[in-house]
């Protein structure tokens, strides 16, 4: 990892370490919120300190009672310009919370509004450890290790150096299937996604940002555990599902949903995270790496759809075109 | 309120009052989870004690680190038989948490598994104060008042006696429009819902239980604040939205989403909670009553769709028909 990233992360982690943290808030919008939610998932499972995810504008308007001087607020925006998130950073800071901005633009309004900045490189040829996933996971496991030291987290932090290889290998291994998926599903007007645990947020991101935003395909990210309590009645032979079979404790929820969906729909695609390549990652750390890798694999499914629908992922009809 | 309900609620509230509560968990599935989430919303906004919502199976599998002897776990299942929620009650109890079951069946497995039981009457001609909303809101505001006494909560508890009239009046006032809505939208294959704050959960419930489960209409409950960060690109002249314009601090989020949706879609239906009848409710308490009333109003929109699609809300293809 480049020194500037190491320094930024160290500063932020040290600030957290020096406090008596009462709670964590993860605040962002859309895909950025979904990315942050992976951190919320791990913190909530491994730490005895509460954490909560908010979409930025709701955070500011609801003004949660727990927000204050002993809060850590982690905010994220790719460009660092998302107005609601910039506002949320100012708001959190005015309440005395420690604020950490995650963004690719160190000079952005978000990074200027927050007390601590953790910036990542983007499409500049950098190694993945200096990219959005490498930097964010380093921050999260740095915080975990600071608040509740564990040799496991030390190993995660070291093995994150394999991300570049893991991304490349897994992209290569899944490319053909993702391309084929795009061909098979290019006429679909609606595609449901499903997942649980840390992977629910990948499903949410795929639904909101890739299917709805970039491909204009109707969608809903269903939690695998919620599927049987309402949504599953929509299942039929011609209803498409893209389901993440996650790693970690909630895998049985995904398995149950997949078993059902495959019985009644002919259009079920399963992305099995346990079948990915984890070279260089210790067996007991796999569940921490799965969410980091799943994103780049899923992205290829969107590329496949873009290719075969002739609808590039870069096309928008509202964003960048008007005020809203 | 009937004495048995008063006694059950008092016992549960006293148990919470006697503890040093570290956190609240709201645990259920589907529509029951969405109902509980209203409590989570109010607690999180008004108390300096963290709370969190879980779908039952994820709660058990993730095993959040914060769960323990100082936790209060509120669980809900209409029939009290939802296996995942019964399991969650046993799990929470095994961890030493105080468990409170909310159900219509006092003899159900859920009520037997939990330490405290708060049961409500259902379709037996009882007044709404003894029904699911009256009893649950009495529990939540009883807890709020026990943990952080406030004359405001006293007034909410007293004015909940108006629920029956509020339900009847508002159902009457919105019946014609809901019926007409069903006629206008009977051919729609997909209907998006939207909301924020306490009302997001109403949108979720309407999407999962009424549209997808009962009417087999595709849907996704979009958070009004998230709409602009992905989902809004799906908006087009022929894409239907049913949007709850909520009361309370996040109303501006709904207004922004409505303004946008109405500009680009010809099929936007707005249910404005501020326009409902609040006779007997103090001005400053309206935002606590809106979520209680919105559910019965929205239900009529589903009735309208059922009437005009000829698809009764009671029809299922999987539930009650097979093991899954």
From TrEMBL, chains A, B:
Homooctamer. It comes from the Bacteria. Pfam families: SIS. Its EC number is 3.5.-.-. The keyword NAD does not apply. It comes from Sutcliffiella cohnii. PANTHER family: FRUCTOSELYSINE 6-PHOSPHATE DEGLYCASE (PTHR10937:SF14), GLUCOSAMINE--FRUCTOSE-6-PHOSPHATE AMINOTRANSFERASE, ISOMERIZING (PTHR10937). Catalyzes the conversion of a range of fructosamine 6-phosphates to glucose 6-phosphate and a free amino acid. Residues 12-149 form the SIS domain. One of its GO terms (molecular function) is hydrolase activity. The keyword Hydrolase applies. This is Fructosamine deglycase.
